[in-house]
Amino acid sequence: MSGKGPWTSWESIYREVKPEELPWNAGEPDLELVRLVESGKITPSRTLDLGAGPGHDAIYLAKRGFRVLALDISPAALKLARANARKAGADERIRFRVEDVTKLDVPESSVSFANDRGCFHVLDAAGRKAYLRQVSRALAVGGLLLLRVFSDKEPPGPGPRRFSKRELAEFFGSRFELLKIKSGVFAGPRRPKAYVCLLRRRA
Length: 203
Prior knowledge:
Layout: H1 8-16, H2 31-38, E1 46-50, H3 56-63, E2 67-72, H4 75-88, E3 94-98, E4 111-117, H5 125-138, E5 139-150, H6 165-172, E6 176-185, E7 193-201
Parallel strand pairs: 1-2, 1-4, 2-3, 4-5
Antiparallel strand pairs: 5-7, 6-7
Helix pairs in contact: 1-4
């Protein structure tokens, strides 16, 4: 990929920063994702991993029988994710694709689960609206979205946008039923405060 675009800064980060120094690279799958899968609340199905990054969530899901399409806007991020998947013996179970989550190239109602560990909260206002349209279009009715974002309990500063519970409920409410929202933290070296949301696609 060449030229300039919304992917450029992410590509630079993944090219210039060592994987172990990426603030969002926890080196393991998200613990809330693991809890929900192991509890049976999220079951193996066609899945989108939105903003796959280092690929740890996609690897975890693939090894548990999910058919995963892992998307990231950065080719370098997916190169890292593929390498991690090869080490874990899961590379043949995941499809990796460079793609903008605000312009999803997937059939309507083609997936039952979408996983987002920190993608939505880095989008601008227009990107968030496009994300809502695209993700709800891709999910079948009754499909689940697991969303993790910076919460308004995280002090102001650089980084992703902070959201309140009310903002999340109002923003997603037209297309999703909010099944669960809880406070937590993002695993990794900085452990920023987060909200974990489980949403179900409305009819």
